[in-house]
Design goal:
With about 550 residues, the chain is α+β, with helices and mostly antiparallel strands. About 55% of the residues lie in helices and about 15% in strands. The termini are far apart. Keywords: Cell membrane, Membrane, Signal, Transmembrane, Transmembrane helix.
Length: about 550
């Protein structure tokens, strides 16, 4: 575990050092990086050569030096301390006993800040250290130690996985007991628990998936530790660890770099939020009547607040959009445009209803509780929003009407002036020409005055609307303030009209009724027929 922590720290320090270079200067073309030929032993780069020597180019020279070092480390009697350095006026040569390992010329030094002897000395130090570590790490004792460390890591991994299974089983049992207790309480309280029981397999499945994910994570983290124990597999360990550390480092750096934009977004959001609160306060005061504006009705206050709130948040999003992560990405912009077009095409009817709802709000054709008629539908308004208006008929039928339909047609409101001027209810009867119109007027007005729900302070009146072939049409008009009880009032009014006319012995000729009057019985109920009445016979002259 010490090795893996060391490796993690090295990764983080390397990331910080690479991202904390000298201050950014004006952009200038960067010089092309020097590409040397590496000398690699056991997957470890010892040094790089940047120039050729003699008849060999740099690639051939690096290959020759690599073969010489590989031949040395293959010897059973190799001792890194036998490496020596000899300098003359033109070359610095590294020997192993009397065998040449590599030579350093003056041109090699031009690619570094060291002179030739210093560069050769640094190469000698690297060879002694790297090759000495190679033999130390590949000794019999060290191999045994490495194997024991690997076994310890595997045992620890198995122990962690076993503990994870135990913990997940304990958690599952505890969850089952708590769930059963909760279900018993719900059942005793009379609550339905059928759907709650269906959720239990989902929860246990989530626990199982979480356990599998944790096991995979433990195995993946154990692999770099195992590979790092053996020197020959250290590059694989670094690579595996890089798959985890590199994305994590990128995420952390992205978060740190995004902090200024995040603060800007927070300030814009807070300012917008407090402006919305101010608008809401003013709207509430207007709705309560504490604050008035000429020409602005109190019922407009909250709809206007909702519109302003939507506009403010839309403006806030427009301002915030450039500060969102990925807003400069062509893919992000393309997806945003696609979603906008998709929303526009798929919600054309919804948008038309929303616009109609806003227009209806400021037209004020009706409000909640009003009795209205839209087309052939009449009922009380129980709900209105930006999309639809819901009416409840006298049969308790809830009818939903799109706002666009209401806006495109005409609407009759029976409640608007019912409490002030009174709603006029009217009904028409036809009476024969043999009955004086004064008598009909008197009977109709008496029937209206005897009806519950008709205003007593506004006198009913009668209009003669037509002189038909066999009868006269009389229209009775009476005032009421109970627009929501129109059906009941009409029914009582018709009952009273029948009673008044029957009591007076006047026939109601609705629907049209024709007869030979001198030969037929009078058309009123028998209870209202005068005592001693005799049906007349036919008189033929």
């Amino acid at each position: 575990m010490r090795n893996i922590w060391y490796l993690l720290i090295c990764f983080l320090l390397t990331s910080v050092s690479l991202n904390a270079q000298a201050p950014v200067k004006a952009k200038t073309p960067a010089p092309a990086p020097l590409r040397g030929e590496p000398v690699i032993i056991n997957r470890d780069t010892l040094l790089k050569l940047y120039t050729g020597q003699g008849l060999f180019n740099v690639q051939e020279r690096a290959a020759i030096v690599t073969k010489r070092i590989e031949a040395l480390v293959a010897r059973m009697d190799f001792n890194p301390d036998s490496l020596t350095l000899k300098d003359d006026s033109t070359l610095s040569v590294i020997y192993y006993n009397s065998q040449i390992v590599m030579a350093v010329n003056n041109q090699d030094a031009t690619f570094t800040e060291l002179n030739r002897p210093q560069l050769a000395a640094s190469y000698l130090h690297i060879l002694k250290q790297k090759l000495g570590n190679y033999f130390t790490n590949n000794g019999t004792q060290q191999v045994v130690v490495n194997i024991l460390e690997a076994i310890a890591v595997i045992v620890l991994l198995i122990a962690l996985i076993w503990a994870l299974f135990k913990a997940s089983r304990w958690l599952k049992l505890k969850l089952l007991r708590a769930w059963e207790t909760r279900m018993d309480k719900l059942a005793s309280a009379g609550a339905p628990v059928v759907y709650a029981h269906r959720l239990l397999p989902v929860i246990t499945g989530v626990l199982r998936i979480a356990r599998i994910i944790v096991i995979i994570l433990l195995v993946y983290l154990a692999l770099p530790v195992l590979f790092y124990i053996f020197p020959s597999s250290k590059p694989i360990s670094v690579q595996l660890l890089g798959y985890v550390v590199t994305p994590f480092k990128s995420i952390l750096l992205a978060i740190v770099h995004y902090i200024p934009n995040l603060l800007t977004i927070a300030v814009i959001y807070l300012v917008t939020r407090y402006i919305v609160k101010l608008v809401k306060f003013i709207a509430n005061e207007i709705a309560l009547g504490n604050f008035t504006i000429n020409g602005f009705y109190a019922e407009w206050a909250m709809p206007t607040y909702n519109i302003i709130r939507v506009l403010l948040f839309a403006f806030m999003f427009v301002v915030i959009f450039p500060y969102l992560p990925g807003s400069d990405s062509k893919i992000f912009q393309g997806v945003t445009v696609f979603l906008g077009i998709l929303f526009s095409l798929g919600s054309s009817s919804a948008i038309s209803n929303m616009v109609a709802g806003i227009v209806l709000t400021y037209m004020r054709p009706y409000k909640i509780g009003d009795r209205i008629k839209v087309g052939d539908v009449m009922g009380d308004v129980v709900e209105k929003n930006l999309l639809v208006t819901r009416l409840r008929t006298i049969k308790n039928e809830d009818i939903t009407i799109p706002n666009a339909t209401i806006l495109s047609g005409h609407t009759i409101n029976y409640t608007t002036v019912a409490n002030t001027m009174g709603l006029i209810l009217n009904t028409t009867v036809t009476i024969g020409y043999d009955v004086p119109w004064q008598t009909v007027h008197h009977l109709l007005i008496a029937a209206a005055e005897a009806t519950d729900g008709i205003l007593a302070d506004k006198k009913p009146f009668v209009l003669q609307t037509a002189l038909n072939d066999f009868n006269v049409s009389y229209q009775l008009n009476a005032y009421t303030a109970l627009s929501n009880q129109m059906a009941g009032i009409y029914s009582r009014l018709h009952q009273n009209i029948q009673d008044k006319f029957n009591e007076a012995g006047v026939e109601i000729m609705s629907p049209h009724y024709t007869s030979l009057r001198d030969g037929n019985h009078i058309q009123i109920p028998d209870d209202y027929v005068a005592n001693g009445y005799v049906k007349p016979g036919f008189k033929v002259e």
